[in-house]
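Box 3.1 — From sequence to structure: Alpha/beta hydrolase family protein
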Amino acid sequence: MPTAVLPRNGESYFDAVGDDSGMPEILRSQATETAAGWMVSPEPFFAPEGLGVVDEADAVWLARRLTAHPLSALADKVVLSGAADRLPKTYVRCGRLPVPVLENLASSLETQPHWQVERWDCGHDVMITEPDRVVDLLRRIEAGRPTVAARPAVS
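Predicted structure (token representation):
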């Protein structure tokens, strides 16, 4: 999974990012102002450039496909059974998304036995900007090969 927040059982996205980030309040306000309180517009947080898509043709392609996001997907608490806790998992830390909570999460996952963390110098939407790299990672995971060869620091 590319850089993402991973709420624990009983947490929401908002819980996982924390109030200190300002994101919960900003997104709730945006939903109230623009979409009758229940939808979050893709602008400005989920705009192509914010997701690391800077190639003009790719940005135009992506912008046409972005839609509003239900606020409940961010605010509702997840219910997890724990069944996946022992399965191997891979987290890709997209280094051009400078969000402290994501860096803290990646560092924490690196210490957990069922997680492999890859650190890539890319934006969040790496599946658009570097699709071959994503395919290579998925093939390595499927083949059971280690995904982490080296862990360069995120700049």
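Summary of the box: Residues 149-155 have pLDDT under 50 and may be disordered.
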